[in-house]
Write a structure and sequence with these properties.
Layout (H helix, E strand, L loop, with lengths): L6 E5 L5 E6 L4 E5 L3 E4 L3 E7 L9 H14 L5 E7 L5 E6 L4 E7 L6 E4 L4 E5 L3 E6 L3 H6 L5 E6 L3 E7 L2 E6 L4 E5 L3 E5 L3 E6 L3 H6 L5 E6 L2 E6 L3 H11 L11 H11 L2
Antiparallel strand pairs: 1-2, 2-7, 3-6, 3-10, 4-7, 5-6, 8-13, 9-12, 9-16, 10-13, 11-12, 14-19, 15-18, 16-19, 17-18
Length: 263
């Protein structure tokens, strides 16, 4: 095993956090901003990239590993948490918005999982966090969030976060599933993936959905979320009172906004 073997426990229902138990000298790698709490004797360090050996040695290898993360919209840096004591210690990581934390043992999924660029939460040290390009360039120009995805490689444990309710679908060989690009959370590397245009002008203009969706073709497992963060954010902004609205429009929310804006 190239990865550190970590134990964990997930708490909560809709706003979950995962507690990772580290043996002496074990390390977990996490996205910046996901840290919640930790016990004493855990050493925290900021590193370039994912800290795995896959990025190559030397400065150029580290820069290349970190540069790949920039393409997915993530930070140049990640944070490692290492148990430097002589007994087991615990560190916890929180989900960024309502949803579920999905534990994935990469050794049970062919050593590779492809996920949305903002889905990765944390993993055992040794798991490589890279990028997965769609082969067809049309998906890059029109697929939006579906073009550049993250890939998690190794034989260790990784934690992925998704919004709303999560469902896992097992696709048979040749079986096809069409999904909104934002609702796709993760898939096994055996699943082929493409972006398709929604046929029919009326559907595209008046259907209320995007112009494109993801087409997944088996065999392999896929994970789907019911509430992508982009959809949640758009609903919140749409419901927020405008500055030019009437005084009694959304009075409670407007009062809070005015209080912080100095009105």
């Amino acid at each position: 095993m190239n990865n550190h073997e970590i134990d964990y426990k997930i708490y909560g229902d809709d706003m979950q956090f995962v507690e990772v138990e580290l043996d002496p000298h074990e390390t977990v790698v996490a996205e910046a901003g996901s840290f919640m709490m930790m016990e004493d004797d855990i050493h925290m360090e900021t590193i370039f990239g994912d800290g795995s050996a896959g990025g190559g040695g030397g400065l150029m290898g580290k820069l290349f590993s970190a540069g790949k993360r920039v393409l997915t919209g993530e930070s140049l840096f990640m944070t490692t948490f290492t148990n430097s004591g002589a007994e087991k210690k615990r560190v916890s990581f929180a989900s960024p918005y309502p949803g579920k934390i999905i534990p994935m043992d990469l050794s049970q999924h062919g050593g590779k999982i492809i996920c949305q660029k903002d889905a990765f939460l944390a993993a055992a040290k040794g798991v490589q966090v890279g990028i997965e390009f769609q082969r067809k360039i049309g998906a890059g120009f029109f697929g939006g969030e579906g073009f550049i995805m993250q890939k998690l490689e190794g034989d260790g444990l990784a934690f992925v976060h998704a919004g709303g309710t999560i469902i896992k679908k097992e696709l048979e060989h040749g079986q096809t599933l069409r999904v909104d690009t934002g609702c796709l959370v993760a898939m096994e590397s055996s699943v082929s993936y493409d972006i398709e245009f929604v046929k029919g002008v009326k559907t595209a203009l008046f259907g209320g959905e995007g112009l494109f969706f993801a087409t997944l073709r088996g065999p392999g497992a896929v994970w789907i979320q019911s509430l992508p963060f982009s959809r949640l954010a758009s609903r919140v902004f749409a419901a927020a009172p405008s500055r030019g609205g009437s005084k009694d429009e959304g009075s409670i929310a407007k009062g809070i906004f005015d209080m912080f804006s100095g009105d």
